Amino acid sequence: MTTNPTPLIVTFGEMLIDFVPDVAGVSLAESGGFIKAPGGAPANVACAISKLGGKSAFIGKVGDDEFGHMLVDILKKNGVNSEGVCYDPHARTALAFVTLKKNGEREFMFYRNPSADMLLKESELNMGLLKQAKVFHYGSISLISEPCRSAHLTAMKAAREAGILLSYDPNVRLPLWPSSDAARDGIKSIWKDADFIKVSDDEVAFLTQGDPEKEDVVLSLWHDRLKLLVGFKGRVPGFSVKAVDTTGAGDAFVGSFLLSVAKDTSIFHKEEKLREALAFANACGAICTTQKGAIPALPSTSDALALVKSKAN
Questions:
Q1: pTM of the model
Q2: Does domain 8-15+41-91+114-308 have CATH number 3.40.1190.20?
Q3: Among 32, 42, 229, 275, which is disulfide-ready with 11 (CB 3.0 to 4.6 Å)?
């Protein structure tokens, strides 16, 4: 008897180093020291999937520098296939300084001029790896500048033609775009291609310029190809935990949910299964906030199940 092989989820985009103040609640200027943490939403999602026992690969570009090699080692240590990662001999790996304000919310300052992730070319895409995927996941940062934008669009088109599910988490980072309008237009330019989209309340407000609490405002983001639009802070009850750092919580949520989808695509049509998957994904997101840094804080399946169970009791 042959069992189905574990479905592959391929994520695409940026992987970088986050520098986080070693003391919570201070501005970048006030911080006396920084903790170095691997980051970049698509890479975080790949690690989240792998940590939950799934199969993931990351496609992107880092600098041929100490940090770039460190990041690829982290992918490997976390069980993520890194065959799709290229090294740029001239550009540096991107850096982001991320402050955690007193309420655990974040402020970003980026060093990318241009960084290696922005310089991924179409010709460097590992199409063989991409075409093995059941799900292809990406953000919007890879749409900001060429040549990465063209590589992103080519990868999406190849995935669509191969019948692969497309998953989009815009992850709005305004400081990286030339203007708010450019960000809105860029993010919406690929909106109608996705099968699954995750947005936060802030992103709904930014993209629609309306009130994210109003259902018709959220529904204005719906399109016919979509199978699911999830507002992170979703309609499924969240879990109450002591948040230390919200970095990566959305990525843990997305990774967990995509793993459920890859295992069973009928989930989109079965409300009970969908609720279960979203509750589990919420638990993953919640656990991720209880520790500093995104990747080190990603939960295992047993952690998340324990949290779901504790809430049920």
A1: 0.94
A2: yes
A3: 42
